Amino acid sequence: MRKSLLTFAAAATLVAGAAQAQTATYAIDPTHTFATFEIGHFGTSTNRGRFDKKEGTVQFDRAGKSGKVELTIDISSINTGTAAFDKHLQSPDLFDTAKHPSAKFVADKFSFNGDKVSEVAGTLTLLGKTQPVTLKANNFNCYQSPMLKREVCGGDFETTIDRTAYGMNYGVDWGFPKNVRLLVQVEAVKQ
């Protein structure tokens, strides 16, 4: 009986170790990762911008269909192509980068459609407030990079958030929409 228990314990340890060994860490590649936003402008056109500085990691277990994400965005790196607009977006009216220099997306729930990630659910912290957010994958793939000689995984993700849930109320009384579309293009390199 004791030999059976030891054999079972050893087998369980091997299985747990094998399952854990399938989780790999990926570093977000800032040259292939972009966080952009879109918001309507008086029902006439769409204002767009992106954040040029971002960093983070992904832990991904394709076989176990699980993962974790931590993505930090430097809000002061906002870039709309218009310096005056960038400055206003950084002001206390909107992102208030002096008090809140970064935003953070943290997720630990991956949903799959077959072998492809279909959604990543977690929280977004912006302006000091944290709200649940689910990023829908419009595209997802892993490939062996011929240049890096390592596996790269990533995709195109999107969601729509209510900016007033984070306390960003500027212009709502004038008719600016509450809803902001977020688009995240991400590639991460296996470490």
Description:
The chain has one domain (23-190): Lipocalin, CATH 2.40.128.110. It has two helices and eleven strands. It has helices at residues 2-21, 83-90, and strands at 24-28, 34-41, 45-51, 54-61, 66-74, 78-79, 102-113, 116-126, 129-144, 151-162, 179-190. An eight-stranded antiparallel beta barrel has the order 1-4-5-7-8-9-10-11. The chain is elongated. 19% of the residues are buried.
Q: What radius of gyration results from the CA coordinates?
A: 20 Å
Kindly report the average pLDDT value: 91
What is the number of helices?
Answer: 2
Query: What proportion strand?
Result: over 45%
Main beta-sheet strand count, sense and barrel state? 8 strands, antiparallel, barrel
Backbone shape: elongated
CATH superfamily: Lipid/polyisoprenoid-binding, YceI-like
Strand-helix topology:
Blueprint: H1 2-21, E1 24-28, E2 34-41, E3 45-51, E4 54-61, E5 66-74, E6 78-79, H2 83-90, E7 102-113, E8 116-126, E9 129-144, E10 151-162, E11 179-190
Antiparallel strand pairs: 1-4, 1-11, 2-3, 2-11, 3-6, 4-5, 5-7, 7-8, 8-9, 9-10, 10-11
Give the structure's gist in a few sentences:
The chain is mainly β. 15% of the residues lie in helices and 53% in strands. The protein has an eight-stranded antiparallel β-barrel with strand order 1-4-5-7-8-9-10-11.
What key attributes describe this structure?
191 residues; mainly beta; 8-stranded antiparallel barrel; 11 strands; 53% strand
